[in-house]
Specification:
The structure is a single chain. By secondary structure, this protein is mainly alpha-helical. The chain has one domain. It is built from seven helices and no strands. The protein has helices spanning about 1-25, 40-70, 70-105, 110-135, 135-150, 155-165, 190-230. α2 (about 40-70) packs antiparallel against α3 (about 70-105) and α2 crosses α5. The longest helix is centred in the last third of the chain and has 43 residues, at about 190-230.
Amino acid sequence: MNFLARIQRPLGIITLLALGASTWMVFNAPLDFQQGNSVRILYAHVPSAKMALFCYILLTLSSIVYLWKKNETADILAEAAAPVGAAFTAVTLASGAIWGKPMWGTWWAWDARLTSMLVLLILYMGIMALRNALDEPLKAARATAVLAIIGAVDLPIIHYSVVWWRTLHQPASFGGSSGNPSITGDLLPPLLAMAISFILLGGYLVVLKAREVEAHRQLEQLDVERMEEDD
C-alpha cells in the first residue's frame, strides 16, 4: 500500500487539471441539433456509467484474488471500490433522469439499461451493507467477495441491454456493436476528455478510500492488541 501513498498527491493534481480542462471543453462544445443544451448532461452521464462498471470490474477482480490468494490488499481494494462505484452509479442514474425528462418526457422508465443499472446500485449497496453487518472481518471479506463475483453477471447485461432488447436508451457511446462511438464530430473530443478525467477521478477516489480502509484496519488491530495486553 506504500505505492498508493506515493501516487496519491500527483494523481490528485493530474486529476484536478484534467477535470478543469475537460470541463472547459464541455462548456465550449457546440450544441446538439436535436438535444440542444441538454447534450452537456451526457458529458457527465456517460463517463459516470463507464466508471460504475470499471469499479465493479475492479471489485470483482479483487474479490477473486482475495478468495484465491487470501491477499489482504485485494480485500482492501475491493472494500474501497464499492462506495466509489456506488457513487458513480448514483450519478449515472441521477444524470440520466435529468436528461430523460426533456428527451423522453419522463424522469424514469423501466428501460432495460436503466433497470440493470439500478440493479448495479443495489448490488453495491448490498455488498457494503453485508460487510458492515458482519463483525468477523474474515467472514465479511469472504461473504462480500462471493456476492461481488455472483453480481458480476449484471455487467454484460448492462453493456448489451441496448442490443438484446428494444430500449429507449441510446446505443452505447463507446464500444457499441459497430465498435465505433455513436457520438461523433465536435461533440466527441469533450466526451473523450471527460471520460479520461473520470477515469483519473475514479482512480484517485479508490486510492483515498483504500488508504482510509487500511488505516482503519490498523487502528482496529491496535485496539485488539491493547485489549489483549490488558487481559
